[in-house]
Design goal:
seven-stranded mixed β-sheet; single chain; Rossmann fold; 199 residues
Length: 199
């Protein structure tokens, strides 16, 4: 899947990232040790799917970036203006080193999402971070007027959409994952809160 989506130069940078992650993973729990053998298919290729859904010039804020999925992968693929938000200082150290080694520029914000001071984004992304009700509480205030969210979700995506219908109105587009038969990319736009946060 990767070779048809990105250039050989991008694959080379992703290889640098993957090698660095593998080395750091023994000191910092970036991914489950059992995932290292499937790092490319389970994590990297999963995130590369988003590249075709984001224009290069769009400002992207990635919430709970962790090991760089999907935000740093988007930057390595060629997205400009990517901001990574991560509360764990050790993971931020990895993100800084991985960005340097991969030759990409990103802004790294070492903060809890709710405490971060962030510029408005065209796109807010997240992967394996939180259920949709919490993601929308975090993401919607960060979006530009015409902005959208791209969330990589698993088999509970429809349940999560049902759970937010009483509080949020939005346009929903679904893209079937090419790496996980149970996975889906939710594209959420025109997001508007219709009930208070404590409802």
């Amino acid at each position: 899947m990767l070779k048809e989506d990105v250039s050989e130069a991008v694959i080379a940078r992703l290889t640098v990232f993957a090698d660095l992650l593998t080395r750091w993973n023994s000191r910092i729990n970036l991914v489950a040790p059992s995932d290292l053998d499937q790092l490319w298919d389970r994590h990297i290729a999963d995130c590369v799917q988003l590249f075709g859904l984001i224009a290069r010039h769009e400002a992207v804020t990635d919430l709970g970036s962790g090991a760089g999925f999907p935000g740093l992968i988007m930057a390595i693929c060629g997205c400009d203006g990517v901001t990574l938000v991560e509360a764990d200082g050790r993971k931020c150290s990895f993100l800084r080193e991985a960005a340097r080694a991969s030759g990409v520029h990103v802004t790294i914000v070492n903060s809890r999402i709710e405490d971060a001071r962030l510029p408005a984004a065209d796109v807010v992304t997240a992967r394996a971070l939180a259920p949709l009700p919490r993601l929308l509480d975090w993401a919607q205030p960060l979006l530009t007027g015409g902005g959208r969210c791209l969330f990589l979700k698993g088999r509970k995506a429809e349940e999560e959409l049902t759970a937010v219908r009483s509080r949020w109105h939005m346009m929903v587009a679904r893209t079937q994952s090419r790496t996980d038969p149970d996975g889906v990319i939710l594209s959420l736009s025109q997001i508007r809160r219709v009930a208070p946060m404590n409802c």
